[in-house]
Automatic annotation (TrEMBL):
InterPro entries: RNaseH_sf
Example GO molecular function: nucleic acid binding
Domain of life: Eukaryota
Gene3D superfamilies in the cross-refs: Ribonuclease H-like superfamily/Ribonuclease H (3.30.420.10)
Gene encoding the protein: Tf2-6_444
Identification of the protein by name: Transposon Tf2-6 polyprotein
Organism of origin: Nephila pilipes (Giant wood spider)
Length: 103
């Protein structure tokens, strides 16, 4: 999850540099975009409210809210990912001393 977020942030910064625009605006919009499975964006998870951006938004949505079940949703999502991974994962074969390996 974190690796994907870093990749998206790098992509936003790269595209902003190509277009000669401010990358911070793109990052703020990304932080306000809900992530799949959690129905919340990073900003409300951290600050308990949405960030004000250049896009029009209702003042009611900018007010602070309490999000109590974020941790439970995150753990549930991680358990589902683990279940899918464990379906195809298998233990590595043991290496014997002197066995040739490729890397």
């Amino acid at each position: 999850m974190v690796e994907r977020a870093v990749g998206i942030a790098k992509s936003i910064m790269r595209k902003a540099k190509e277009d000669k625009r401010d990358y911070l605006v793109g990052l703020m919009e990304y932080r306000n975009t809900p992530t799949s499975g959690l129905d919340l964006s990073p900003a409300p998870m951290m600050f308990n409210r949405r960030l004000k951006t250049k896009l029009p938004i209702s003042n009611k949505l900018l007010n602070a809210e309490l999000f109590n079940n974020i941790r439970e949703k995150l753990i549930e999502k991680q358990n589902i990912q683990k279940l899918h991974y464990d379906k195809t994962a298998h233990p590595l074969l043991e290496l014997k001393q002197g066995e040739n390996i490729k890397f």
